[in-house]
Structure formats: C-alpha cells, structure tokens
Design a protein that fits this description.
Radius of gyration: 19 Å
Strand content: 15-25%
Largest sheet: 5 strands, parallel
Number of helices: 8
CATH class of the largest domain: Alpha Beta
Order of helices and strands: EHEEHEEHEHEHEHEHH
Helix content: 40-55%
Length: 218
Amino acid sequence: MKKLFTEENIIKFYKDGITTVYIDGSELFTPSALDKIRALKINIVKKNKVQASGNIENKFKQINFKKIALGSDHTGFNEKENLKEFLKAKNIDFIDVGTFDGQSCDYPDFAFEVAKKVALNDADGGIILDATGIPSAITANKIPGIRAATCYNEFSAKSSREHNNSNVIVLGARTLGVDTIKSILEIWLSTEFAGGRHQRRLNKISKIEQLFINGKSE
C-alpha cells in the first residue's frame, strides 16, 4: 500500500526538527504537501540518494476546454506565467489578456477581459488569478452568461463544473500554492457538466439574469 503524505505530515516533520525525509519512491504527496515542502525547505530524498522531483502529474481522461482566456492582476502574475507551460503541456490553446508584468494594477480590468472572451465565444473557458479569487469572480459574474467560480480545492472545482457548469475559474494566488492551483485546474478542466436537475437550476439563474437585463426586478 502506498503511503500518502499530507500537509499535516510535513508540518509535523518540521516541528519535530526533521529537515530530510527519505522515501522509496512509492509514496504519494498531496499538492498542499508539496507546497509546504517548498515553503519549509524540507528535502525529499529517495533511499538510493536520488532526490525526488516533487512533481506529481495527475492524469485525466478528457479535456473539456480547447481554448482558454487567461488573465490576472499583479498578485497572480507569476502564477499566470507558470500556468502557460501547464496549459501548453495539455495542448490547450490560450489567450493571455494580461497583466504583463508585476506592477500594481486593477483586477476588474483583467477579469472583464477574460469574461468577455468567454461570453463572446472567443474562448471555451477562462482562468483568472488574483490575491484571493473573490474580487475577480464578482467582476466576471457581472457579464451575462458568465458563471465564474472561486475554487479553493479539488472538490469545489469538480462541483463547480459538474453542478454549476462554470465557464470561468478564479483562483487565489496568495491563498494557494502553485501545485495546488495546478491540481485544482486538472479537475476543473476535465470534469463534465452533469445536466439534469442542475440544468433546471441554471435555467432559473438565467431567468433572474434576464429580468435585470430587461430592466425588471420581479
């Protein structure tokens, strides 16, 4: 049986003064554990003295998005740049709407650009990064037809696609590590909408949206 290392395990090692963990190569690390290993500078070394790479690729059956609109404010710039290689490895085309450096900027500008690309069918879906994943989702959801979900773990990502048919995912660059972000995206990109009763509920959301588009409130 493979041993699973979680973030709690890594924190305990650190508190116990353990700075090097020896493994035999059959162990599994959660994404949050990998982030904590990097943050605490703990060495993961195979028993044959070859250092483990710490890079776990989650395989999935199908990509449901062929073209992505990708954007961030300054707080998510580095993570956005990192995700470009992640998307390339998945053969997913993307449109980078900015920001294009780490200088302070306003998140609504880039959340709007991503959501607009999706609403106009220039992209199948969107990925937005800001500090917490909250303000850009608020912005994106002002555009009719956008269902932007702030996701903070794999379960919320799966639910947002399966139940809510989210077409934009928003992630907090200052609340999640890069490996956790990638793991969440793996699930979001590959989960299909379940339809059925969930579509009925989305239809009700669309009706509410349409009321205000038409200048009515009831």
